[in-house]
Amino acid sequence: MSRDNLVILVAAVLAAALGGWLQHESRLAHVPAGVTVAQAGEPAPRLELPDLQGRPHALADYRGRRVLLNFWASWCGPCLDELPALDRVQAKFGENGSIVLGIAMDDPAHVRAFLADHPVRYPVLLGRMAPPSTSLLWGDNDEMLPYSALIDANGCVIATHRGPLDAATLDQWLR
Asked: Furthest-apart CA pair in the chain: how many Å?
């Protein structure tokens, strides 16, 4: 290998390493100081949110079940595309203990109107949009929707996913 090629290779490796570090740091920059964000492999943080009728629900109520938290909004096209698949897996696996729990990051009136026309068979809770938002606390550092977090029956976060979940992943996560 010539000296010029070696210099180019070293420069490319350094640029890639710097780019990866900057991307990692920029994701952390969205998290306010003192805010703890859920991480895969760690116990799930405490979560208590109201449903559409204002009744509080705690994640602890679902202990012993695998829970898929799905953060969405009525204005989010990819979120709406994903809802029928989430509803299907809830119907398929809900009796086996797994549950989809929708967390609407939206105005309650918009959520009610949307669900009146497009009902789902899983609980929908209203996320907190004020900083730090509920989705941010669950690892959605960029606060981009849809976002999902999978919690095992023991209450530990086992996976997170940005963007819509495909049918195969949904099936695997809730099986």
From this structure: 70
- The per-residue b/e assignment along 51-83, b for 16 or more CB within 10 angstroms, e otherwise, is eeeeeebebeebeebbbbbbbbbbebeebbebb
> In which band, very low, low, confident or very high, does the pLDDT at 27 lie, cut at 50, 70 and 90?
very low
Mean pLDDT of the chain: 88
Contacts of residues 87-91 at CB distance under 8 Å and 24 or more positions apart, as own/partner, are: 87/120, 87/121, 87/122, 89/170, 89/171, 89/174, 90/120, 90/121, 90/122, 91/121
- For residue range 150-166, list pLDDT tens digits in order: 999 999 999 999 999 99
pTM beyond 0.85: the answer is: no
